[in-house]
Amino acid sequence: MIGKAVLDRVAITLDVDWAPDFVIDAVARLLVERRVRATWFVTHWSEAVGRLPGYGDLFELGIHPNFLARSTHGETPDAVLRHCLELVPGATSMRTHSLVQSTPLLAQVLRDTPITTDVSLFMPRTPFLRPHDFWWRGRALVRVPYFWEDDCEMQRGDACWRLAELLRVGEGLKVFDFHPLHVYLNSARPDEYALLKSRVGTLSETTPADVADIVHEGEGTKTLFLETVEHLASAGKSLRIRDISEHWRDGDAA
Question: Which H or E element spans position 210?
Fold first, then answer.
């Protein structure tokens, strides 16, 4: 089976969620400077998104399909998946926006797309996490559960922005989910993001002036993000979702 060393690793993922280019570029630089791998789940095409593959094997691009009503990705699951795969040709991983999921939807992903790994199962601060296989009609979709998400952490009465405390939860794979805008704002509560959304019509058109006075001081999403990046850089070991999935499949086959 998959080695314990991989099961105990930390990984960074990012849900782009229509972030503006200056935010995507700023967060990407923090990872590039420390040579830390990450997986970006893409909601839209932009020049900054187009720059991410240029960093070689540092970044994996997956899709972040929005299956909710009035989605700009399409009116049906088939249209949404087709649109997102046109944004990221060759994508093999996904996390659904708002974590929309069902057996029929996962079966459709297996049947109709090249997606081999799903990261839509959120299990906050849960120890002993590991991938598992969702089987449907003789085919398997690797499901990688994830451990932490910034906007959900803000809703907790015991919100934690210190990596050491989160690592003390126990053994197991710890996939973190950051949103570039929350990293840029250093969000520690929903207020800053809500204020930004009230100021701008479209998130992707946000300017630096729109956020200049609402960046949170103190502990928050960015301080935890930087701690996580430094932790991975110091260890010299960072994983994309693709790497975790490949390790799982190779281990299962052994």
Answer: helix 208-211
The owner of tokens 């989160």 is 166
Task: Work out the pLDDT band at 1, boundaries 50, 70, 90.
Answer: very low
Residue 124 C-beta-side C-alpha neighbours within 13 Å: 11
**38: Cβ contacts below 8 Å, ≥ 6 apart:** 11, 12, 13, 14, 31, 58, 59, 60, 238, 240
Q: Is 210 a residue whose pLDDT tops 90?
A: yes
Q: Which residue in 231, 198, 247 sits closest to 3, CA to CA?
A: 247
Give the bridge partners for 93, in sequence order: 117
Angle between helices 77-87 and 103-112 (to 10 degrees): 50
Grade residue 130 by pLDDT with cuts at 50, 70 and 90: very high
Kindly tell me the sign of the dihedral angle through the C-alpha atoms of 71, 41, 28, 169. Answer: positive
Task: Decide if pLDDT at 84 tops 70.
Answer: yes
From residue 114, alpha-carbon distances to 5, 74, 94, 120, 149 in Å are: 28, 19, 10, 17, 26
The Cα–Cα gap between 132 and 135 comes to 10
**What distance in Å separates the CA atoms of residue 128 and residue 152, rounded to the nearest whole number?**
20
Contact 227, 235 (CB under 8 A): no
